[in-house]
């Protein structure tokens, strides 16, 4: 009888296999001329169904917090909670040619990650805490900041201007965070809206590879809070972390920084001056 999978092996397998299912479904739907909305809905559904069945079979006693699933009240009193986004970047998944979508699988065990995996199916890659990706060398004169396709978060604008960054836009929080892990970018800053399933697996993977991961005030991110809303997120190279935080908070000391629940998290319009890096 084969040995049971470790948590890390399970996270890696589920992220990878879900990605394979989505790749096959996407190709089939595009060939059939399915609408954008049909592609989105079908992708979310097949990924959630597969993961729900796998967790029920292989981890029936663990709670699950999933973007596409019903609330599992067991998680409020549980130490082991799987936090998953079956298809992160649904918009990009529905657009032919886009590769910036992902599958997120994370296990929050007590007060830390027990396992995490992020697959980028269009690249054929799965990043995992079981086999952390070595941190690439940093040899750019100007850091590269990655931000949302849809909007330039105010904190990202501050960082881009404060560190004189070049900037690129991608969909999917997982794709953005993994671009930092791969060394294609150096800083990912988000504020103004996000949920636990958007950042959990990317955070676990990035931490395992030695990257700085925190809230915007520099504090560690804690998961499995009752409210799934977790609106801000930083992933960056460790040698840039202090400069990133200084750019966001200017001359404020650590003690002066507001808590993550303060009103500054309300989304604000990004500067549109000619000198802005992100406009």
Walk me through the topology.
Elements: H1 7-31, H2 36-58, E1 63-66, E2 80-88, H3 90-93, E3 102-109, E4 112-120, E5 125-128, E6 144-148, H4 154-162, E7 166-170, H5 173-181, E8 187-190, H6 196-208, E9 212-214, E10 233-236, H7 241-249
Parallel strand pairs: 1-2, 6-7, 6-8
Antiparallel strand pairs: 2-3, 3-4, 4-5, 8-10, 9-10
Helix pairs in contact: 1-2, 4-7, 5-6
Give an account of the 3D structure.
- The protein has 279 residues and is α/β, with parallel strands linked by helices.
- The protein has helices spanning 7-31, 36-58, 90-93, 154-162, 173-181, 196-208, 241-249; strands at 63-66, 80-88, 102-109, 112-120, 125-128, 144-148, 166-170, 187-190, 212-214, 233-236.
- The strands form two sheets. Strands 1-2-3-4-5 form a five-stranded mixed sheet, with helices on both faces.
- Helix 1 (7-31) packs antiparallel against helix 2 and helix 5 (173-181) packs parallel to helix 6 (196-208).
- It starts with 6 loop residues before the first helix and ends in a 30-residue tail after the last helix.
Q: Which outline best applies?
A: globular
Report strand %.
Answer: 15-25%
Question: What is the succession of H and E elements?
Answer: HHEEHEEEEHEHEHEEH
Measured between the Cα atoms of the first and last residue, the distance is 58 Å
Tally of DSSP β-strands? 10
Give me a quick take on this structure.
The protein is α/β, with parallel strands linked by helices. About 35% of the residues lie in helices and about 20% in strands.
